[in-house]
C-alpha cells in the first residue's frame, strides 16, 4: 500500500469509506456527514440519476423497466468510477460540496481493502479526484478500523482486529502500530444473507429478497449460533412456482447449518492469521482476544460462535459499522499518537 504519513492525513479535508454495502464520509470539523447504502438508481432512457442511498436501495426490485438500480462498489472496490462519483456528489449534497470546493487545495483520504491491488487503489483515487480532490491518501482499512474502535494499536502488545464487511472479512494482528499478519477472506455479510436466501429457496421453495433475511438472523440470536434459540420462526416470501405470497415455518437449526459454509471460511482465516503470528503475540491475543468491527459484526450470535470456536475472548466494537471511517476521522483531526505514524506504510 502507498506510503502515507499521519502528517499528510492531518492535512486532508475529508475522508471516504466506499464500501460494497455502504458509503461513509467524514468531513474534518463536521464529523460523519454521510452513512448511506452504496446504491444509485438511474433512468436508462436519459441516463439521469434518479436517487441515491437509502431511497435508491428501497427501489431495488420495485422499479419499472426504465429505472435501473446499480451498485458502483463491488467486492470492496469501485467498479464504476463515473457512477461512484455521481453517487458521492449526490450523497454529499450542495452544502457540504460548497464547503469542500472553497478549499484551495482539496485533499481527501480513503480506506481501501487490505490487499487492494494497484487497479483498485487507482479506482478509489480517481473517484475522489473526480470530486475535486487534488491529492488522495489511501489507508489500509484494517488500520483505519483498529484506530476507529480505539484499539491500543501503538502498544507493544498484539491486538487482533476483524473487519466484518459486506463483501469480505479482513483480519489482522497489529502490534506497535503496524500489521504483523493479515488475511482477507472474500466472504462477508452478503454471503451469509445469500446462504439464507438459497436455503429458503431449496428447502421451502420460497423466494425472499436478501434485505428480508434479518428477522431470520435475529431468530438465531440470544444464545449465539448455538442450538438453543427458538426452534422455528415464521417467514413471509413468495412461492417459487406459483409466485404467490406464502409464509413458512423455518427451522432455525437448519438455517444455522446453512450459514456454516461462509462462517467456516472466516474461521479458516482466523486460523491462518494465528499460525502466521509469532508465539509471543499469540499469547497476548489469548488475553486480549478479537475485536470485531464492520456492519456484519452485528450478525446475531456471530461473536458467540467465534468465542466457542477459538476459545478466545471476542468483543464487538461500540459502533462497529462506522469504525473504519471514524478511524480516518481521528487521523484527519490529529487525534492519534504520532507513534503509529510508520505503520501506515504497511
Ligand atoms: N444488525 C445486523 N445484523 C446482521 N448483519 C448486519 C447488521 N447490520 C449490518 N449488517 C450487515 O453488514 C454488512 C454491511 O457492513 P459494512 O457497512 O461494514 O459494509 P461495507 O463497509 O459496505 O462492506 P465492505 O467493507 O465489505 O466493502 C451488510 O452485509 C449487512 O447485511
Ligand atoms: Mg467496509
UniProtKB/TrEMBL annotation:
Any Pfam family matching the protein: MreB_Mbl
Subcellular location: Cytoplasm
InterPro entries: ATPase_NBD, MreB, MreB_MamK-like
UniProt GO BP: cell morphogenesis; regulation of cell shape
Binding site for ATP: 295-298
Single Gene Ontology MF annotation: ATP binding
Keywords, comma-separated and alphabetical: ATP-binding, Cell shape, Cytoplasm, Nucleotide-binding
DNA-binding among keywords: no
One Gene Ontology cellular component: cytoplasm
Assembly with partners or alone: Forms polymers.
Reported function: Forms membrane-associated dynamic filaments that are essential for cell shape determination. Acts by regulating cell wall synthesis and cell elongation, and thus cell shape. A feedback loop between cell geometry and MreB localization may maintain elongated cell shape by targeting cell wall growth to regions of negative cell wall curvature.
Recorded family membership: Belongs to the FtsA/MreB family.
UniProt name for this protein: Cell shape-determining protein MreB
Protein's organism: Streptomyces albiflavescens
Amino acid at each position: 500500500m502507498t506510503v502515507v504519513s499521519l502528517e499528510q492525513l492531518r492535512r486532508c479535508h475529508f475522508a471516504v469509506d466506499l464500501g460494497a454495502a455502504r458509503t461513509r464520509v467524514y468531513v474534518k470539523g463536521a464529523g460523519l456527514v454521510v452513512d448511506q447504502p452504496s446504491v444509485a438508481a438511474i433512468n436508462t432512457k436519459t441516463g439521469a440519476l434518479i436517487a441515491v442511498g437509502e431511497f435508491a436501495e428501497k427501489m431495488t426490485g420495485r422499479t419499472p423497466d426504465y429505472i435501473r438500480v446499480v451498485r458502483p462498489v463491488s467486492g470492496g472496490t469501485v467498479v464504476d468510477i463515473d457512477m461512484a462519483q455521481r453517487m458521492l456528489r449526490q450523497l454529499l449534497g450542495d452544502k457540504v460540496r460548497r464547503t469542500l470546493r472553497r478549499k484551495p487545495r482539496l485533499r481527501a483520504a480513503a480506506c481501501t481493502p487490505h490487499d487492494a491491488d494497484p487497479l483498485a487503489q487507482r479506482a478509489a483515487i480517481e473517484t475522489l479526484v473526480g470530486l475535486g480532490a487534488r491529492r488522495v491518501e489511501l489507508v489500509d482499512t484494517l488500520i483505519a478500523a483498529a484506530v476507529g474502535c480505539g484499539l491500543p494499536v501503538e502498544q507493544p502488545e498484539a491486538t487482533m482486529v476483524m473487519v466484518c464487511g459486506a463483501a469480505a472479512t479482513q483480519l489482522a494482528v497489529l502490534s506497535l502500530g503496524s500489521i504483523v499478519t493479515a488475511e482477507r477472506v472474500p466472504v462477508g455479510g452478503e454471503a451469509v444473507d445469500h446462504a439464507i436466501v438459497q436455503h429458503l429457496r431449496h428447502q421451502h421453495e420460497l423466494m425472499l429478497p436478501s434485505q428480508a433475511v434479518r428477522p431470520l438472523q435475529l431468530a438465531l440470536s440470544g444464545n449465539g449460533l448455538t442450538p438453543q434459540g427458538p426452534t422455528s420462526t415464521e417467514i413471509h416470501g413468495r412461492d417459487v412456482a406459483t409466485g404467490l405470497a406464502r409464509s413458512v415455518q423455518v427451522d432455525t437449526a437448519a438455517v444455522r447449518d446453512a450459514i456454516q459454509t461462509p462462517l467456516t471460511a472466516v474461521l479458516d482465516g482466523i486460523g491462518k492469521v494465528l499460525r502466521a503470528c509469532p508465539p509471543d503475540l499469540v499469547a497476548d491475543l489469548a488475553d486480549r482476544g478479537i475485536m470485531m468491527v464492520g456492519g456484519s459484526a452485528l450478525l446475531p450470535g456471530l461473536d458467540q460462535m467465534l468465542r466457542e470456536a477459538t476459545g478466545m475472548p471476542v468483543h464487538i466494537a461500540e459502533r462497529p459499522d462506522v469504525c473504519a471511517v471514524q478511524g480516518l476521522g481521528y487521523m484527519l483531526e490529529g487525534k492519534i499518537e504520532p507513534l503509529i505514524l510508520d505503520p501506515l506504510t504497511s
